[in-house]
Design goal:
- The structure is a single chain.
- The chain is mainly beta.
- It contains one helix and 32 strands.
- Strands 10, 11, 12, 13 and 14 form a five-stranded antiparallel beta sheet that branches. Strands 15, 16, 17, 18 and 19 form a five-stranded antiparallel beta sheet that branches.
- The longest helix has 10 residues.
- It is globular.
- The N and C termini lie far apart (43 Å).
Length: 392
């Protein structure tokens, strides 16, 4: 079932996950991160340190390497693990704010899909997500799952012009789900698609590569009826783009990365703050350690912050969140084997809120009632990943 080469690009500080996936395809899943029983080498296991608390540590059965975002529904958190579980191909899980975890659904590696890299969305009490592989053609799926664990494949990608390898979270716009595939389409470099909860799929736009952009990596956002997103590659310098596309398929490249002092490789998705879009690039900037940038819907881009690659972090790979005038995000660290959680003003002033000893936060943060929630791809008691809380 793993006949394809995994082309998914993890942020640089999560590259070990690609090795893990390939190892799993070979029939023996082992974390590429060395672990030892009882070791705290891959996370911060103290109960409370400067507002940080380890809420839950994953095990092989409960999942491995959560990299998708969390959602909160009726006071319970839900998410996905990219690997692990009884069948080794990923789980949907819930966890209470007291740290009680439950496996909602475990993927079986066949037509039900496997490798749910992206997080979930909640639409009227049913969760929707994507799997990078699996389905009838093993090209990825869109699935639904109830909080009680009833899973259904909504759509199986066919590859070719249809698109394949959906690795982004979905968005809901007036009852229709929108997402992107990393590859497939007429040029093989990705698509934007829509799909109804009943399973009617439509390729809205297929990327052409070159100046048009290639390989959309992050979730889309909807701003006043227009979709906005980023591509990892393409553009005039082949360092990625910001694009807009209408639901009817009219696409426009708003910005192409790779100019002097600009960022490159926009792995993170965009957010809308009062009509201005904010995003992050994994590389580039004055220190080649990544940037936070703003861009208007008309395409005027400004680098807001240049990471130094030292104690202030490097290579932000996940979307920012915005809470009461402040941006929050996570990044790798240039001074240790761990990552950081940071806050940033809308003028670009950054503050490190927490530094992991040897783990990396994965997926965007979630803010609920004054507390930040997040996941680490490694860390926890056994180095398999964790869920943490942080008081900003």
């Amino acid at each position: 079932m793993c006949e394809r080469v995994i082309v998914f690009k993890f942020p640089a500080y999560l590259a070990f996950l690609a090795v893990t996936v390939l190892t799993a395809c070979g029939g023996s899943q082992q974390s590429a991160m060395p672990t030892s029983a009882g070791s705290s080498a891959f996370g911060d296991n103290a109960a409370v340190v400067n507002g940080y608390q380890l809420l839950y540590s994953f095990t092989q059965n409960s999942g491995l390497h959560p990299i998708g975002r969390l959602i909160s529904v009726n006071g319970v958190l839900y998410g996905t693990t990219s690997l692990g579980g009884p069948n080794r191909y990923g789980n949907v899980f819930s966890v209470t704010t007291a740290g009680i975890e439950k496996t909602v659904y475990t993927f079986k590696s066949g037509r039900d899909g496997f490798y749910p890299f992206a997080g979930l969305i909640d639409v009227n009490g049913t969760f929707y997500g994507t799997t990078y592989e699996g389905g009838t053609s093993h090209r990825g799926t869109v699935f639904s799952v109830t909080p009680a664990g009833v899973e259904k494949v909504i759509y199986s990608f066919k590859g070719g012009t249809d698109g394949e390898a959906p690795n982004t979270a979905l968005i809901d716009v007036n009852g229709v789900l929108y997402g992107a595939t990393l590859s497939g389409g007429t040029a093989g470099v990705g698509t934007v698609f829509s799909v109804t909860p009943a399973g009617v799929e439509n390729v809205i736009y297929t990327f052409k590569g070159g100046t048009d952009g290639a390989n959309p990596h992050a979730a889309l956002i909807d701003v006043n009826g227009t979709l906005y997103g980023t591509t990892l590659y393409g553009g005039t310098a082949n360092e990625g783009t910001v694009f807009s596309v209408t639901p009817s398929g009219v696409e426009q490249v708003l910005h192409t990365f790779g100019n002097p002092g600009d960022g490159v490789d926009p792995t993170a998705g965009l957010i809308d703050v009062n009509g201005i879009l904010y995003g992050a690039t994994e590389g580039g900037g004055t220190n080649d350690a990544g940037t936070v940038f703003t861009i208007t819907p008309q395409g005027a881009e400004t680098v807001l912050h240049n990471f130094k690659g030292t104690w202030d972090g490097r290579s932000p790979g996940d979307p920012l969140i915005y809470v009461s005038g402040t941006l929050y995000g996570n990044a790798g660290s240039g001074t240790s084997h761990g990552g950081i959680v940071f806050s940033m003003s809308t003028s670009g002033v950054e503050k490190v809120l927490h530094r992991f000893s040897n783990a990396y936060a994965g997926g965007s943060l979630l803010y609920v009632n004054g507390t930040l929630y997040g996941t680490t791809t490694g860390g926890g008691q056994d180095g398999r990943g964790s869920i943490f809380t942080l008081q900003p």
